Amino acid sequence: MVPAYVGLQKVVGADLLRYRSIEALALKPGDTVIDVGCGPAYYFNRLPNPLTYHGFDTDQRYIDHATRKYGDRGTFHVGIFDSAAAADLPAPDAVLLLGLLHHLTDDESRALLELSASILAPGGRVVSVDTAFVPDQGRVSRWMSENDRGEYVREPEGFVGLADDYFDEIDGEVVSGQGRIPGAYWLMRMTAPKSA
Ligand SMILES: C[S@@+](CC[C@H](N)C(=O)[O-])C[C@H]1O[C@@H](n2cnc3c(N)ncnc32)[C@H](O)[C@@H]1O
Prior knowledge:
alpha/beta
């Protein structure tokens, strides 16, 4: 079941989006990363080594799979990432939210972004990438956005609106045609937390 999920991600090109999101963070060896909604973390080998890595996911099967594959280099936790979980961890240089926000309500997303902003190390950044609705989307792409498993697919402005109470600098780009099947995604990088 988990290998099928990972295989499907690669067929549709979701892996390329993850690699691009990781590149946008310009991580260095020795950095600390928190990956919320990490799933099986099949992109783990694209992260620098060594790294202090903590992945969180609510699905035990994904965490078991990730632990088997990458548990020698990272720590995987079952559950949501909240302030109690954050209190036990070092300040991250980066928080990854890859394919997560379009599964969360506005309130859940805001709580997570506020927490992420409040714990970042100096110079820290957050990256998200999500299925989106964008203008001039082709029919197949729109169908894919409408039928995504995430219940909260938004327009880019919707994602930016979740973050702008917590970060002074937000930049993003629509990525489409990146996958092997057409789809539209919003890749967003958030820096300069207002809480700093
Ligand atoms: C689309 S998957 C993305 C997984 C992985 N980041 C990737 O890019 O392949 C979204 C993941 O978020 C997890 N999830 C959903 N709500 C969550 C929450 N509140 N806290 C942590 N994980 C959550 C799901 O179990 C699922 O594995």
